[in-house]
Amino acid sequence: MTDVNFDRLATVLEQDDDDLKNDLPDVLAGTEQELDTLLLEHPDCFEDLSRRLSTLDGIAEYAGNEPETVDRFLTVLWGGLELISENVPEVQEEVTDEFSVDWEAVDSAVTFHMTSHPDPGTVSGGPGLLENSTLSFKGETDVLFSMLNDPDFNPVTAFMGGSFELQGPVDEAMTFAQMMETVTTNVENLN
């Protein structure tokens, strides 16, 4: 992917939801091989991609129609977060607990996972489920995607309101949420 394509990705991310859904498959193709360029030269684009897909109306239906695009997004998102955790000391200092976490949608085939590694302080993840996760979130696709980077999402309120099911200790889920907030808000510190 070239800078011209990153510029097009940035333009597509500014479109309304319908146009975004239509144009995203083509413009997102190949981004998983260019994560360094995306994060180092276009960090705003990475953040916008994460935020837009985390708040996209009709994400469950879109996932049914474009499963490869949704998997590609999850690969880009988690690959980017892994690069951030590998290179930002503030993130490495926050990744002090070992987690293995699954997300499973009840209204689509979307599943994804992440693991944290206290030594050296990194996270990794992507599409699919782990065999023995310590935490598991199950809910509608839009709720699970909101957990990724929706600035208006409040995990405590959502949990108390029954928006998702949690399997695993609540205190670990709270620690995990705090850790992930640090990881997702440190894109700008990668340079």
Which oligomerization state do the chains in this entry correspond to?
Answer: single chain
CATH architecture level-2 label: 2-Layer Sandwich
Q: What distance lies between the first and last C-alpha atoms, to the nearest angstrom? A: 20 Å
| Uncertain regions spanning at least 5 consecutive residues | none
Mean pLDDT: 91
- Outline: globular
N-to-C SSE string, H for helix and E for strand: HHHHHHHEEEEHHEH
What CATH calls the topology is: Nonspecific Lipid-transfer Protein, Chain A
Quantity of strands, as a count: 5
Q: How many alpha or pi helices? A: 10
Structural class, judged by helices and strands?
A: alpha+beta
* CATH secondary-structure class: Alpha Beta
Relative strand content = 5-15%
Organism: Halorientalis brevis
InterPro entries: SCP2_sterol-bd_dom_sf (IPR036527)
Protein name: SCP2 domain-containing protein
In short:
With 191 residues, this protein is of the alpha+beta class. The protein is 55% helix and 15% strand.
Structure description:
InterPro entries: SCP2_sterol-bd_dom_sf. This is SCP2 domain-containing protein. The protein has about 190 residues and is of the alpha+beta class. It has one domain (about 5-190): SCP2 sterol-binding domain (Nonspecific Lipid-transfer Protein, Chain A). Helices cover about 55% and strands about 15% of the residues. It contains ten helices and five strands, in the order αααααααββββααβα. The protein has a five-stranded mixed sheet with strand order 3-2-1-4-5. The longest helix has 21 residues, at about 65-85. The two termini are about 20 Å apart. The relative contact order is 0.15. The model has no long low-confidence stretch (mean pLDDT about 90).
